[in-house]
Amino acid sequence: MKTYLVALLLSINLPLNAAHAAAIEGITPKATYDLVQMQRADVLFIDVRDPIEIMFIGFTDEVDVNIPYLLVDRNHWDSERKRFRLYQNPKFAAQVEQALFEKGLNKNATIITMCRSGNERGLPSAQLLRQHGFPNATYMINGFQGSRLKNGDKAGFRIQNGWQNAELPWNPKPNPNKIFRIDSTLN
């Protein structure tokens, strides 16, 4: 019910109140899609995944832009997590502000961030944006790929919830005009 109320507030373009600033209520993939369809000009929808991840998992052209919240540091291996280390994009807030400017919006616009699962980058990126003066930043719960199944033959597979599993539009390849690139105007 709470997610529906937040989606309703976002869909009528009212700013989220101070109570939502501390504990950000996410918005579902379907509500995100509907909001983007109804108010595309008034919403900035950002894919906050590293572009390498997008290349292997997929992309939706419904996002306005890809601005990574965390970037992969290919020079340092994290042996505990068995992956390259991630570091926070030091230009993230400035790049989001630039994307808003390019879309003709200001820091009070509705911003929705999307990562793979909603947890590691989606919510933290929205929290960081709020701390940097973007009062209507929120995140898409369950992200692009969704949550892993915990039990059964398909345990570990991301085949529940999320953008892809809601059968919303996506493509296996990124849009070169929206993907984060070193030669981008957002750098």
From TrEMBL:
SMART domains linked: RHOD
Keyword Signal attached: yes
Signal peptide extent: 1-18
Record InterPro entries: Rhodanese-like_dom (IPR001763), Rhodanese-like_dom_sf (IPR036873)
Domain Rhodanese: 39-156
Superkingdom of origin organism: Bacteria
Membrane among keywords: no
Record keywords: Signal
Protein name (record): Rhodanese-like domain-containing protein
Provenance organism: Neptunomonas phycophila
Record lineage: Bacteria, Pseudomonadati, Pseudomonadota, Gammaproteobacteria, Oceanospirillales
